[in-house]
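Task card 7
Instruction: Convert sequence to structure tokens.
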Amino acid sequence: MKKHDNIVVDGSLRYSKLRISPMAGRKNQNAELRKPEILEGYYRVLIEEGLEGTSIGKIASHLGIHPSLILHYFKNKENLRLALIELMIGKFKSQHLLKFDHIEDDPERFTALINMIFSYKWSRTVDPGVHFGFYYQSFRDANVAVLFREMFQWLRNYLYDEFLIFNSKGIIQVNDVRKAADFIVTLMEGLEFHAQFLGHDKPFAEFADTAKQSALAVLKNKLI
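Output:
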């Protein structure tokens, strides 16, 4: 067995042992801390400036850091953008929003789920201006389109799995569970369009409740 530069080699390269310096460990730790901070700063600047008005310089200024530090961690603006979209998707998947295992009663669990997905809290998990700004980009950027497709498919599949259980227990009555899940996701997404263009400054919850009641009528009366 030979040793080369702190790497143990046994001829077949079955394994290697690397000594990581304390400095390297600190750099990795710093990256884990700084990346989320930079992404949060990017998100805040997007809310204030919009997609067109946001730049690495403005993000750096908002955070009080040099622009080169952002490039150090993300290499370019494209990587930064995709990382933020992935962070947004992670917010929607957050377990604290869709965690209902503590509710033992199935009808109550179903009600809690429906109340959550038609709530202002769920709809504003991500700022709608940022959400739909990236949605617009998904029509022109294949990478963004893939991420958005994965996000909506994840939500549809989550609802599909839940509806299968509720349908088997008679809590809802649908003929096509997958189509029912598609319908609910589409109805949910329409709430922000209504709030922005048709709401006339009325409370978000007012029309959201109308949409929720429509969803319940469809799910409980075999309309799909």
